[in-house]
Amino acid sequence: MIALLVRFVLGPLVRAVYRPEVHGVENVPLSGPVLLAANHRAALDTGVITFATPRQVKFLGKAEYFAGKGLKGKALAAFLGGLGYVPVERGNAQAGLAALEAARKVLDAGGVFAIYPEGTRSLDGRLHRGHTGVAALALATGAKVVPVALTGTENLQPKGARIPRLAKIAITFGKPLDFSRYEGQDYAPAIRRSVTDEVMYAILDISGQEYVDTYHKRPSEGAA
Q1: What φ, ψ does residue 97 adopt, rounded to 5°?
Q2: Strand pairing category for 57-62 and 85-88
Q3: Sheet with strand 112-115: strands edge to edge
Q4: Which end of the chain is more exposed for a tag (fewer CB within 10 A), N or C?
C-alpha cells in the first residue's frame, strides 16, 4: 500500500513541483532484471531515481533506519520500504557480501536495482573510479545495466537546508549494456574491472562530468 502511495500519489506530486527533465526513459527495459548504475551527486538522488523510473526500483538502506520503535519508527520503516529501500546491516566484515546478496535477490526475481558504483557521493562534482560490485551483480545475474546520469541534484538541498529547494535537475538514462558475452567469468577480477570501467565510461558519456581514475574518499572528520 505504501509503495503504491509513493508511486502513484507522491511521485506525480513531486514531478509536478520540481519538474525534472527526464531523458531516455525508453532505455529502461520494461521487464526482466535491470541494474541502474548512476553517478551520485546528493542524498536526494535516490528519490529522483525512484520518481523518474517507470518501474519500481530497489536500493540499499541502513538496517538501523528500519529498527525504530513506536508509531514513528514503524511509519519511517514503512515509508522507506515504499521508496524501495532494502535493509542491510553495515559496519561489519560481512556488510559488503550482505549488500551484494540483497541486490542479487532483487535481480534474480526480475526486479530493478539501483547502485552508485562510486560508492559515495562526489564532493567535487567529478566522476570517480567505480567499485566492481556493479560488475559482480551484472555478471552473476545477467541483468542489463542502464547507465544513469543525474545533473543538478546537489542544488536541491544545499548544506544547512532542511527542506529541499526548487532547482533545475535532470536525469538521463543511457542505452542498456549487455555483458552476456562474459557468461561464466563473473569471478575473474580482470573481467569485473573491465565491465565496471565500461559502465563508468557510459555514465561519463551522458553526464559530461570530468573523470578521475581514482576512488573517491570522503574527508576525515574535522578536515577542512
Answers
A1: -65, -40
A2: parallel
A3: 21-23, 170-173, 144-151, 34-38, 112-115, 57-62, 85-88
A4: C
Q: Are 177 and 206 in contact (CB under 8 A)?
A: no
| End-to-end CA, the chain | 45
Grid cell digits, residue 127: 566522476
Residue type, 73: G
* 35 strand-pairing partners: 113, 145
Q: Are 50 and 11 in contact (CB under 8 A)?
A: yes
pTM across the whole model: 0.87
**Selection from 5, 9, 2 nearest residue 79 by Cα:** 2
For 92-110, the pLDDT digits (tens) are: 556 677 888 889 999 999 9
Nearest to 199 by CA among 126, 98, 127, 96: 127
